[in-house]
Amino acid sequence: MKKCKILYSILFFAVCLLPSLGMAASKTETSSENRELAQFPSLVTEEGLNVEWLPEAGEYFQDHFAFRNELVTANALINGKLLGTSTAQGVIQGTDNWLYYKDSLNDFLGLELLSDRSLYNIAHTLSMMQENLRARGVDFLFTVAPNKNSLYPENMPYYDSFKVTENNNLARLVPYLEKEGVAYADLYQAFKGEEEILYHERDSHWNNKGAAFAADILMDALGKEHDSYEEEAYEVRKDYIGDLDEMLYPLATTPEEEIYYEKTLTYAVVGEIESNFDPRITTVNPVKEGSLVMYRDSFGNALVPFFADAYANAYFSRGVPYQLSDVDTNQADTVIVERAERFLPDMAQSPPILYGTSVKLEEEPKSLALDGASDVQILRQGNQVQLTGRVKEEYLDTESPIYLRINGAAVYEAFPMNITVGEETDDGGFCLYLPAQAVISSGNSLEVLVEKDDGLNIVYQSELKEETDQ
User: Fold this and answer.
1) pLDDT of residue 245
2) Which residues is 448 bridged to in the sheet?
């Protein structure tokens, strides 16, 4: 009996130590959970002894222990296949083998909706971009790639019973886009009208047929001559591994069908890229006309071949905030902004980097307050300056434009934006970019002007000193 207990104890500790001892032979270098793995901590840092070494070492072990992906997969299979629940933080286990991205859940349920002012911030910023580009002879189009569960909710699990409203952020944004005159291609309504499912079951994005469908709609909206894929021949292969599938079952993914068009494409990529997920892609097509800049996210990756094949020159960027200097660099005649539905809140916080243009006031503003704004600063960033701050709620209407007057002379309209303060979001923020020579280095008289129903008012006035972005 004593020998049995000893053998049992040895076996127990061997099993417990196996993940640690196995790290020497089997290393986990990548994560299937769409995040960076913890790095091994240093015992000594620039500040001296690392007092957080033990918890950081624990995080490293948690991310790197041997057979981690195997154990993660086994646990996910037990929970997913037997219990119908997801073990991956970012994945929702749906019915009939469908997977959904958890970041889209608030949109689906109608929770944590953007304020009306936030919706205005998005729409008015897009309108300002459009106005600036059209003044330079550049066409502009904005579109939103719908969340998968917005289009195909039938396989969502029990969450559906907690839905608060169907009037989510996208539905509420559309009237603001219309009021601001933003050129908008409504992909939600277009996809909703199709009987065929055009998204992957185990991925968060549309399939190639869905991407071709979206590209047709966008180019039709632009009046761009292009080859439609509606009748194009294609091959179906069961070889696609979805992003959600990889997150949930890293070593037991299930291939699903993907569409591969047989059409020969005539564009070429400039330089080397790993895939269409690269942050910046430049393409050329000598047999086509026009120049495109597309600001896109992961949904736009599948759009790259269709637009690259339609334009003589195309530049695809995943950078945020949008660098509108790209338009001049690439001599673009068309700009498309594509954003996933779940990222609409981010749009309210990331105005583009675009120099403000001076405006002429139709009336002299009344002085309403000298402290109606806070956190106002001028920050130098190379050869440009950024002016930011936030107007207090009582001095703003939902659709109030914000202007900045510098040194009592030039007046510029600022981009309205949301600013995160602690754990709260302030929708009364503003941002303005100017060439550095537009302000003086020793001090600047800055006035914040707000247009309300009762007219134009000065709500803030102060002398500001320029800070340097290190």
Assistant:
1) 93
2) 404, 460
